[in-house]
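Key idea: predict the complex, not the pieces.
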Amino acid sequence: MTTTAERQMELTLPMVPDIEIAAARAVGNLAREMGMSSERVDEMMHAVIEACINAREHSGCTDNRIYLRFLGTSQGDGSRVDIWVTDHGKGFDPEEARSRRPTPGTPHKRGRGLQLIELHMDEVDISTTKNGGTTIHMVKYEKKS
Amino acid sequence: MTEELKVAVERKPQGAVLYTKGYINNVGGEEIANRAYELMDDGVRTLLLNLRETKIVNSIGISILIEIIEKMIDKGGKIAFCCLTPVIHKTFQIMGLANYASIFENEEAAVKELGL
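Result:
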């Protein structure tokens, strides 16, 4: 089986209102070029939106930038898109954030961003250190039918 | 960059339908809330939100939709949604909206079931 990196994109975006839409559209275009289904593209776009909102609202970074990298890869049995969303902020404790999470299906006004990311993506890994920033690495797969 | 949400209202004999077009974020959510609260103040107790032309919502926008649902329930009314994309439908279930508001596949089914 051969694996070929086919599409790659890096973006540095200012933390301004609705900038998450630009990030979502970019990854959506890349995923469509990879032949991913519209539902999987939509899920990815929603996950990227929540990751960017988390960075903008909670990172406390001083450079006011969100750093994004998208990598689309074709594999023998399908394709995958890797997404990295990075901020240079204060970091957070993912386990503590998960412990505050409401039960899925119960109405709750806030605190769902990370939960939505995890439910929309196939893999999610968070690297974060105190005052060292945060990177959320997300992966979405599409198997050939 | 801004993504303005447009909201249109259609009054029905027994309530109203709100049609949204665009991104439901904090600003879009507030726009929907303003229109919904105007209708509630005017006595509307059955409200259908048709999201046919909305492809993206975020968690802040959904939190505002939950506030609208809570206010309507406090007034003894009901809110329903129709024409959701599969991902928005899934997101509403995760966020708990599906427990307090009915979700219909299309407007015709919603209008019939809600008696609008």
